[in-house]
Amino acid sequence: MTGIGEAGLVLGLISSIMTIINTTIQVYDAVEDEAGLPKNFKKAAAKLPLISKLLKDAEVYVSKSADKTIEAAFRPTIEDCKTQATELQQLFEKVIPKGDSRWDRYVKAARTIGKGGRVETLIQRILDDLQLMTSKFPEVTTSEKKEKLVEATEEVSKMEPSMPDDFDQIPTYAYYGNGPQNINASNGTQNNNTGTGNQNTGTGCQYIGSNYIAQDTRNQLSHLAFAEKAPFNSIDRQYEPTCHPDTLVDLVGKIYAWADGQDKQRIFWLSGLAGTGKSTIARTVAREHSDQKRLGASFFFSRGGGDVSHARKFVTTIAVPLADNVPSLKPHICHTIANRSNIASLSLQDQWRQLILSPLSKLEGNLYQPYTLVIDALDECENRNEVQIILTLLLEATSLETHRLRILLTSRSEIAIQRGLSQTPEAKHCNFVLHNISPPLVDHDIQVFLRDKLEKIGKESWLDSWPEDKAIKNMVHRASGLFVWAATACRFISEGEGYAPRRLDTILEGSSSAATAPEKHLDEIYITVLKQSTPSNYTDEEKEESFATLRHVLGSRVVLLSPLAAHSLSRLLDFPDGKFDQSLKGLHAILVVPEDQTHPLRLHHPSFRDFLLSAQRCCDPHFQVEQKNAHEVLTNHCIQLMSQKLRKKNLYGLRDPGPIGSQIPFEELARCLLPELQYACEYWVSHLQRSEVKINNKQYLDDSGPIHMFMQQYFLY
Questions:
Q1: Where is the NACHT-NTPase and P-loop NTPases N-terminal domain (predicted)?
Q2: What pTM was estimated for this model as a whole?
């Protein structure tokens, strides 16, 4: 086809779509005042004037273009747009007033335009087509209209269907014809037997004839398993910091530039030693892109964190926010869920290909704007096989050309992750080693951080001209490039309140050997915090008991396989009332101890777990935790708790043995099985395995051992 012929065809298509849209606008104007029209239908149809204006801009752009390849590029998108517009027109024509009564016309409208969200879906597809067009040809319209288009697309994509697809099959609750009319327009009772039909206009559901107009419909995304603690902004992470605005400026700027880029380096791997600030940078990027509405999804791994310590919910947890945040992907992801009811039980590879790759491949051209996936602390995923699977999945995503997803990945510099990423050409990913930043630059940033934090502490404690520059420089030297050292030191000093200067001196009086590795300085401050948590006026015997309690509590916490609240862990360990809370006093520099006792007890940084479990790093025997012993201790406590709490037959008070576990309401489950008991039931075997108790250990496994006794007496309950 010649250039002139192609241009004429495209202009003809645009003109015909404009005619359809303008006619549809007239139909909408004729009925939009009907109070009973579905709410989301009215919201979606209100986007028609914007669609008309954008089409007019496209018509002008094509007619003035001297580049004949543009017309050919326009054609597929415009043809699809016309298909959607034609179907939209046919739906609207069914509700043109033709002498019907007001309510007859409304019922007709409800049956046609509301069912399955047809209008919302068609308008969304037209908006998607126009968004694709403006992303390919940014100069086709104004920036203001493009912004309105993005907002309109996002709004319509999040709308629920006006009616469920099966509303015609719902039993008749009212009828048309001669009979009483019941109008309930308030919370009270009102009966008007003066006409025909049955109408309920109260605050509940609305019934018209044999149709059921739902106030809300079930969101298909809710069927996917979701790791609640994985997103960067989950409630459990709300106190975790982002970067100080004057620190790591060059690196954060480099990440932002990469995220905005259009090259094929779709993965940015940020690696580094523990405590160098990887997670803080990941949170900073996630927060910035979330505020800009360009964060696709985030998943922050955490060892011992339950659902975030493994990858079994990784794909579904990525898919849910991706569908919510990227309007053009949502219908494709929801379509997969609707047609694959077992999607969450498939392998990670199949989930990824059907929930992520397949929807991405259906995008006709690049996304209107780049979106970022932030995956933090991949090394914290406890299953090494799952780590390799995730890397494979991420690399698969880089092979698609129909999207602008950029993946920020952080982890320690582990060989397995290096090997996994080496399977793809360097042109598709870039690496940045955080601890290779020039030491003077890192020291400058740590100094900025320390000065800001310590000056705030000084003002809160009414300290003038504190701290001195010399003290800050000394702390920078001791930090040895580790932001986690600086953050831990500041928390420790802050807890001292009026004794902040004394706590600063305690830190500065520690070992000052310049030859020690960075971890050595971090270990020293951990030891300092632990020792300072026990009052100095205790007797030697009291100190020994206090240290033993501390080792017991911390050892149990760092080997937990799923987070527990402080009071739940206290009951699992069978602590007397008040003693557990007493043991945590003075540890806020290294532990997150929430005021709400139902929230989990968390570590400020995973390096503290590494410290306690390493005999080389934790040189003080008062605090050193032997991992296998800690698992053995938890095994004992789990068995003891189950033996005490599972004695009761018919724990749920069921009248008959018929119901299966899934039929028991969650509230009843939570009431009868407290969190610590649920934990014991689920993880006691795992702790036993990790304790590596030998089969011939009579303490456990012979006929008089606790495990055999438990299995014999309580297991079948």
A1: 14-133
A2: 0.60
